Amino acid sequence: MVKEINGLNELNEVVNNNKKVLVDIWAVWCGPCKMLSPIVDKVSEDLTDVTVVKVNIDDNEDVAYKFGVEAIPTLLVFEDGKLKNKNVGFIPENKVKELLK
């Protein structure tokens, strides 16, 4: 199940309390984000060892600033509390899963 995160503090709590986290940074008005969203939801169902969260960039500019997000959609992969991988732009399901390896 994908959880919506509000704010950097809540994101930090999730990242620091889970082994592997996929963060989908998106916006309502973003076409590629709308295409990526169901893929992220499916990955969340398929990979039960990964915590998946979404962050609306319009409501959470602090997250964008902290992680240098300049374009969306952006996927961030954290492992053991550290940023391990990042992707900007739409990618298919198999590439999302590759990011998590």
Features:
101 residues; Glutaredoxin; 4 helices; 5 strands; 39% helix; 29% strand
What is this structure, in a nutshell?
By secondary structure, this protein is an alpha/beta fold. It is built from four helices and five strands; from the N terminus they run βαβαβαββα. It has one domain: Glutaredoxin (3-Layer(aba) Sandwich).
Descriptive account of the structure:
The protein is an alpha/beta fold and 101 residues long. It has one domain: Glutaredoxin (3-Layer(aba) Sandwich). The protein has four helices and five strands, in the order E-H-E-H-E-H-E-E-H. It has a five-stranded mixed beta sheet, sandwiched between helices. Strand 2, helix 2 and strand 3 form a beta-alpha-beta unit. The protein is globular. The model has no long low-confidence stretch (mean pLDDT 96).
The biggest beta sheet is recorded as: 5 strands, mixed
In CATH, the topology is named Glutaredoxin
Mean pLDDT: 96
CATH superfamily: Glutaredoxin
Number of strands: 5
How far apart the termini lie comes to 20 Å
CATH architecture call: 3-Layer(aba) Sandwich
Kindly provide the name of the CATH class: Alpha Beta
